[in-house]
Design a protein that fits this description.
The complex is a heterodimer of chains A (240) and B (514). By secondary structure, chain A is α+β, with helices and mostly antiparallel strands. Chain A has 10 helices and 5 strands; from the N terminus they run H-H-H-H-H-H-H-H-E-E-E-E-E-H-H. In chain A, strands 4-3-2-1-5 form a 5-stranded antiparallel sheet, with no helix packed on it. In chain A, helix 1 crosses helix 5 and helix 6 crosses helix 10. Chain A is flat. In chain A, 30% of the residues are buried. In chain B, strand 28 and strand 29 form a beta hairpin. Classes of the chains: A alpha+beta (240), B mainly beta (514).
């Protein structure tokens, strides 16, 4: 490869990154930060596992096009060329962030080690009422190998999109129980386990009972001290 | 005789229409007393109450409400603007785009598109109007003056340097011959300011800075002015909320209260001089802008007639102030709040230093989005209820030395939240009724009417009409996307319309024609 050609390659890449930056600034930077290191609401993309496994926008593109409605991220119907450029910019920012010397911005696993595991265990079994639903040898066995750091703490505080079930009693007296698919003040919908089809009813025409055990996490948010949270984290991190 | 009378009326209507067609545009004095066929400014009037005196759609017939027309912008960006309605033409926006649409039919009259630019395309709250000009702020912090007739650019000025990190989203406030604009910019240590612009020439009349220049020892930057204020013509004061200080999540370089960040300020619109300031969030470290609508209400407060200013602030507190002097009349929470040690003698919350963001995290209520955000609340005068889209929520906040002292300077993550419409009794702060809006939160603005209706949206994309006296649902329609704007209402040709938007679509609702 001639020197001139390598130079042209670099110039093309720089141009790609610049056009990706333009898209990023318009669409992404408010939430993810101008350097992709996190901004209002959106996570640091330079530490993202998805970004790390992305090649040329294949993974990033999927998320951009579909959005993450559950996490509050809208979908962006960007053309393929813009996705490629966007991904090139994010990878460049990741490289830059990783080359920074000293402490990095954001939350490291090491930051979340201030608690006391014994105190966390007693909170788990006592005031926290965690052991009513969870067991360190059952559902939480090895939880610290499945999740770590901030992700573990977020799931501990509130596992968003934990499944809920609903039992609907129809006017005929027939009852249907299945995974809760939709609920607002007018409609309740479930996936009928017998057929696999979605079914829904106006709430005015049926009786229904929702079972959403994960909502107990929301009840706890007003009761925790910060120490309780750090202690619980310390305890959960022993469940390997 | 009856026929004659009708034709006389018809002739009158034609005359009025012709008259309007000849004198099209908006005299700024109309904003003082908007007629029923006009929504002349972001809030609809200067008070920010977002209350309509219309009564045709009422508690008994609202169940018949149906779609008059819809308008699809076809854009990625959601509509966050409040449309203006002048001379039967609606003007609304998304970033880089303005539409003029016939309010009777939904037909597009013109569309203006701003050239591609690198500014943040996070939102656009709508245009302002003076005579036959529209004023439009852009992602790269320009102010564009458009001819309302055809959307052609009259002039284009720079409000702030977008290369430094400023952007703009707000609908300017027009007071007489002042077009007042504010700015956004949280990711750099920048001064917030309000600027008054001459509507004809685009020249600056005055600039008021909310914070000192960057680098001033022990002082914050920030205090962005990104939502439209309100105005009291009797006192000749504009009321404006200012945003959070920068650096955002650490106060290491800004030890004190940080004036005038997270504040409500009262300024003279003729010269930009500060009359008074009240600070809802002294020494903020949680991004809780105090930019939520400063709602102006004249009425009784504990037996004394008062000129009041009310705000449901992002930090979770409801404030009632005497707007002649900024003194506190009432401070109370309107949802879970865990970051303060109480309220000081001046009615300001006292931040708890243990709830500053920390390396190992602090659980904070409300979350960064706040107990409410930019969409409008509404004040209903007959019930005395201040109705707000509330967002009980928790987030975790982190900051450590490695995060530095520039821009965001930390990290925070929402944990849990939900939407709930709250009707607050302004004399006591007690919540008279509440209405669940769904998981995550709604974010929809609120409109009340003299016929006792409250219009808003839920977290699942339903447009709702509720009974203002008790919060019960009277009507709803699914739109599949959440409402990121605030409803308006108007009357044309004897028909009342309620306008909402969800996603990139405008929906206009009316009773069936006979």
């Amino acid at each position: 490869m001639s020197v001139a050609f390598a130079g042209a390659d670099r110039a093309a890449e720089t141009k790609l990154i610049e056009s990706g930056q333009a898209v990023f600034l318009q669409r992404c930077a408010f939430c993810h930060g101008r350097d992709a290191g996190g901004g209002e609401t959106g996570p640091d993309l330079t530490r993202s596992k998805l970004v790390a496994s992305d090649v040329g926008g294949d993974k990033i593109g999927e998320v951009v096009r579909a959005g993450r409605p559950s996490g509050g991220m809208p979908a962006f119907n960007l053309p393929a060329g813009e996705i490629t450029a966007l991904a090139a910019f994010v990878h460049e920012e990741k490289k830059l962030a990783e080359s920074q010397k000293g402490g990095r911005r954001g939350v490291d696993d090491a930051d979340l080690q201030t608690g006391n595991a014994a105190a966390g265990k007693s909170y788990f079994e006592g005031a926290g009422t965690c052991s009513k639903c969870h067991s360190p040898t059952g559902d939480l066995a090895g939880v610290a190998t499945r999740y770590h750091g901030l992700k573990l703490e977020e799931r501990m505080l509130y596992p968003s999109h934990a499944p809920a079930s609903v039992t609907v009693t129809l006017p005929s007296g027939e009852t249907v129980t299945g995974k809760l698919e939709y609920h607002d003040e007018f409609t309740v919908g479930l996936k009928d386990p017998a057929t696999g089809w979605y079914r829904s009813w106006p709430v005015s025409q049926v009786k229904y009972q929702i079972d959403a055990p994960a909502e107990a996490h929301a009840e706890l948010l007003g009761k925790y001290t910060d120490d309780d949270i750090h202690n619980l984290m310390a305890y959960l991190q022993t469940l390997r | 005789m009856k026929l004659l009378f009708q034709s006389f009326l018809l002739n009158c209507c034609v005359c009025t229409t012709l008259l309007f067609a000849g004198t099209s545009g908006l005299d700024p004095s109309v904003i003082l007393h908007p007629p029923a066929d006009t929504w002349p400014s972001y809030h609809g009037d200067y008070s920010g109450r977002r209350h309509s005196s219309l009564t045709q759609i009422n508690r008994s017939n609202v169940r018949n409400l149906g779609l008059a027309w819809a308008f699809q912008t076809g854009q990625e960006d959601e509509i966050k603007s409040s449309p203006l309605l002048v001379d039967g033409i609606l003007y609304f926006t998304v970033p880089d785009n303005v539409w003029a649409v016939d309010a009777r039919s939904g037909h597009q009259i013109w569309r203006y598109t701003y050239p591609p630019n690198k500014g943040f395309h996070i939102g656009q709250r709508g245009v302002a109007m003076y005579k036959d000009s529209l004023y439009f702020t852009t992602p790269d912090a320009h102010l564009i003056c458009l001819d309302a007739k055809d959307g052609k650019v009259r002039w284009n000025i720079v409000i702030a340097d977008s290369a430094k990190g400023y952007w703009t989203t707000l609908s300017p406030l027009v007071v007489r011959n002042h077009v007042i604009v504010g700015v956004s910019g949280d990711f750099d240590n920048l001064r917030g300011f309000l600027r008054s612009i001459d509507p004809d020439t685009g020249k600056t009349q005055w600039t008021w800075y909310s914070t000192p220049p960057a680098g001033t020892p022990d002082q914050p930057t920030g205090g962005m002015t990104w939502m439209t204020g309100t105005y009291d013509p009797g006192l000749n004061l504009v009321y404006w909320g200012t945003g959070n200080p920068t650096p955002v999540l650490t106060a290491k370089t800004r030890p004190g209260d940080g004036l005038y960040t997270c504040s409500i300020v009262a300024l003279n619109p003729d010269n930009g001089k500060l009359a008074w300031a009240f600070q809802p969030s002294p020494h903020d470290t949680h991004d809780w802008d105090a930019v939520e609508t400063p709602v102006l209400v004249d009425g009784d407060f504990h037996g004394t007639p008062r000129k009041m200013l009310m705000q449901t602030s992002r930090n979770g507190y409801f404030f009632v102030l005497d707007r002649t002097n900024g003194k506190s009349l009432l401070t109370t929470t309107f949802g879970p709040v865990n970051w303060s040690l109480g309220v000081d003698k001046d009615g300001r919350p006292i931040p708890n230093p243990d709830k500053d963001p920390a390396p190992d995290g602090r659980l904070i209520a409300p979350d960064e989005g706040g107990m409410t955000n930019y969409r409008s609340p509404s004040f209903d005068p007959s019930t005395g209820l201040f109705i707000v889209d509330a967002h009980p929520s928790y987030g975790i906040y982190f900051a450590k030395p490695a995060d530095g002292t520039f821009g965001w300077a930390g990290a925070d993550y929402g944990v849990w939240g939900k939407g709930i419409l709250e009707a607050i009794d302004y004399q006591t702060g007690k919540i008279r009724w509440s209405h669940e809006l769904g998981p995550g939160g709604s974010g929809a603005g609120v409109l009340t009417t003299d016929s006792g209706l409250t219009f808003t949206g839920d977290a699942l994309g339903n447009v709702l009409a509720l009974d203002t006296s008790n919060g019960k649902t009277l009507w709803h329609a699914g739109t599949s996307r959440g409402m990121q704007s605030s409803p308006i209402a108007y009357e044309l040709d004897g028909h009342e319309y309620v306008l909402t938007s969800s996603g990139g679509v405008v929906f206009v609702w009316a009773l069936p024609a006979d």
